[in-house]
Amino acid sequence: MNQSPPVILTIAGSDSGGGAGIQADIKAISATGGYACSAITALTAQNTCGVEAVSPVDPAFVRAQLNAVLYDMPVRAVKIGMLANQAIIREVAAVLARSPHLPVVLDPVMIATSGDPLLDDDAMDALINTLIPRTTILTPNLPEAARLTGCPVPTTTEEMYALVPALRKLGCPYVMLKGGHLHHAPESLDVWISRDTCQTLSARRIETPNTHGTGCSLSAAIASFYAQGLTPIDAGRAAKRYLTDALAHSQQLIVGRGAGPVHHFFAYPADESVYLSKHALVESHALVK
């Protein structure tokens, strides 16, 4: 019997450069064994050098995309990224309220790489009050965690752990606090927070400029692994391993003149002859059959 991969719905902005946002989500979900469908919240004109323009999608059309997917597709998990504004946040929250069984992984995209805020105060309030309490796993980086809690941005592992009580008060069952911004640390350390425990997830730090879309890819992979039956923390561990390998292989991609993307499909052969030979073998078997 043929078995379909689990369906993961990603709700995020589109990256015309292909390295982050919806495009990165689809790649990460596909590479980790899921089937990706999407609802686009914003269009961006961007590349590896930066973002040139952003155009939010009409909230009613965001709702239409969500309704179309959820009506037809057996969605097993939802990943949320860039939401652009308060109206879109409230639409997404209202639609998800009708599907309380669906696990949600929320990557709170609110601060640009330049440090500029991507959500105004009204949108932040809507995110904190309507969407984060509905979230299963929250995946903030250090600047995002600081803005969510009103605390200073951590500069040490000890300061990361000091954020734990404030992050728990947000009402989300699980938080994966990402420590990638601690560039001086010899390892990449994240703190996995549940309601009563904390654990450190560590991996080797990959020195590469190709970090575009890392947050999107990690949260999408968590949703994919979770939809395949892993526990929340095991999904976090598996996604961290996947992202570490995708970063380690990122130098194999020569894409753009700025901060390049990770290599989502590092585990697949890049040699066209390998694919062609496999494809020919399948065709020959079909002819014999």
TrEMBL record:
Q: What class of enzyme is it?
A: transferase
Residue ranges occupied by any Pyridoxamine kinase/Phosphomethylpyrimidine kinase domain in the UniProt entry: 15-263
The record's EC number reads 2.7.1.49
Does the entry feature the keyword rRNA-binding, yes or no?
A: no
Which pathway does it serve? Cofactor biosynthesis; thiamine diphosphate biosynthesis
Query: Which domain of life does this protein belong to?
Result: Bacteria
Provide this UniProt record's keywords sorted from A to Z.
Kinase, Transferase
UniProt GO molecular function: kinase activity
Record's InterPro entries? HMP/HMP-P_kinase_dom (IPR004399), PM/HMP-P_kinase-1 (IPR013749), Ribokinase-like (IPR029056)
Gene3D superfamilies in the cross-refs: 3.40.1190.20
Q: Which PANTHER family match?
A: HYDROXYMETHYLPYRIMIDINE_PHOSPHOMETHYLPYRIMIDINE KINASE THI20-RELATED, PHOSPHOMETHYLPYRIMIDINE KINASE
Its protein name is: hydroxymethylpyrimidine kinase
